[in-house]
Design goal:
CATH class: Mainly Alpha
Strand content: 5-15%
Largest sheet: 3 strands, antiparallel
Family: Belongs to the archaeal ATPase family.
Distance between the termini: 29 Å
Structural class: alpha+beta
CATH superfamily: Winged helix-like DNA-binding domain superfamily/Winged helix DNA-binding domain
Radius of gyration: 12 Å
CATH architecture: Orthogonal Bundle
Shape: globular
Number of helices: 3
């Protein structure tokens, strides 16, 4: 179970890295990390357009700040 959580965390981080320089990203399929981020109200799925974007500008800024802190 712990390994699964660790893998999920790594995949969520990789997902968030896509927002470093973009406000929205395209997705091909809905993965476990996407489901997690949507359930936590961090990301929004636009099924019609096939894109993911943060729920709010504040969420986008928080994602970028976290990336900045971790990637230093």
């Amino acid at each position: 179970m712990e390994d699964e959580n660790n893998d999920l965390f790594k995949n969520v981080f990789k997902l968030f890295e896509n927002f470093k320089n973009r406000d929205e990203i395209a997705y091909r399929k809905i993965t476990e990390e996407i489901v997690w981020a949507v359930k936590k109200n961090i990301l929004f799925i636009n099924v019609e357009e096939g894109i993911l974007k943060p729920q709010s500008k504040l969420d986008l800024l928080a994602i970028r700040e976290i990336l900045k802190e971790i990637l230093q």
